[in-house]
Specification:
Rossmann fold
Length: 243
């Protein structure tokens, strides 16, 4: 589901410095002490096989206790979606998720109550257990948080709000497009900056919305819509499950 794939022979020929796990990021280096006659005389850079990100993901998957993984999930999805699992999703959706390209975004849209947020929570659970650093935000909350940074006495800056969103391994954004353009214009400008940076570094973003990408482009920001056209688009229809 978008996890690193074995790199091709072509990629290997292009550069021997690429990560042997994901095939896209530059390999990490380990500093090793150099000794002479039992005395440290300097350091030597030893090339690691994997990039820093893949190493961190592997270590979190291996070392992070299950209790901490569950706490992470609970803090981000709440009690309602705590037990959401990929196996509960439609088989067609699961197949699409399994065929994701490395770094590819996902855009889930459809009418209210069709399971978009449930699918997002199931994805987040999957990736937390795979060792990825995940962040989830509701776009409405994001608009409010951004606006609060310009208030007198604000304790957070705009950068402190958006930096974690630009660098998370997997970013989940719920309910894009609920607010009017007038209410959220600055937030959409900021969102474009986040998406642009994440795509440059091949960090996938998963979004849900009641609107199609075309509607996002027409009603809010054409640049964001353009960025999202490379995403795996999943449409969820049906009756409102909350009724």
């Amino acid at each position: 589901m978008g996890e690193p794939k074995k790199i091709s022979d072509i990629q290997k020929n292009l550069s021997g410095s690429l990560c042997e796990n994901c095939g896209y990021q530059v390999k990490s280096y380990e500093l090793q002490m150099v000794f002479k006659d039992g005395v440290a005389v300097g350091t030597h850079k030893k090339e690691a096989g994997w990039c820093d990100r893949c190493i961190d993901v592997y270590r979190r998957k291996r070392d992070l206790p299950e209790k901490k993984k569950e706490m992470n999930i609970s803090e981000q999805v709440g009690s309602l979606y705590l037990n959401a699992k990929l196996s509960d999703l439609d088989k067609v959706i699961i197949k699409k998720l399994k065929n994701l390209e490395y770094g590819q975004d996902i855009y889930i849209h459809g009418s209210v109550g069709t399971g978009k947020t449930y699918a997002m929570a199931a994805l987040l659970r999957h990736y937390v257990y795979e060792g990825y650093a995940c962040r989830r935000i509701n776009f409405d909350d994001f608009c409010i948080e951004l606006r609060s940074t310009i208030s007198p006495g604000a304790t957070e800056t705009e950068w402190s709000v958006i930096k974690p969103l630009k660098t998370a391994d997997k970013l989940f954004i719920d309910d894009l497009g609920l607010r009017s353009k007038q209410e959220s214009d600055f937030a959409y400008v900021t969102l474009y900056s986040i998406l642009n940076k994440r795509q440059e570094f091949m960090l996938p973003t998963f979004l849900t919305s009641n609107k199609s990408i075309d509607q996002i482009g027409q009603q809010f920001d054409a640049r964001i819509a353009s960025r999202l056209r490379t995403a795996e688009i999943i449409e969820m229809n049906g009756k409102d499950r909350r009724k």
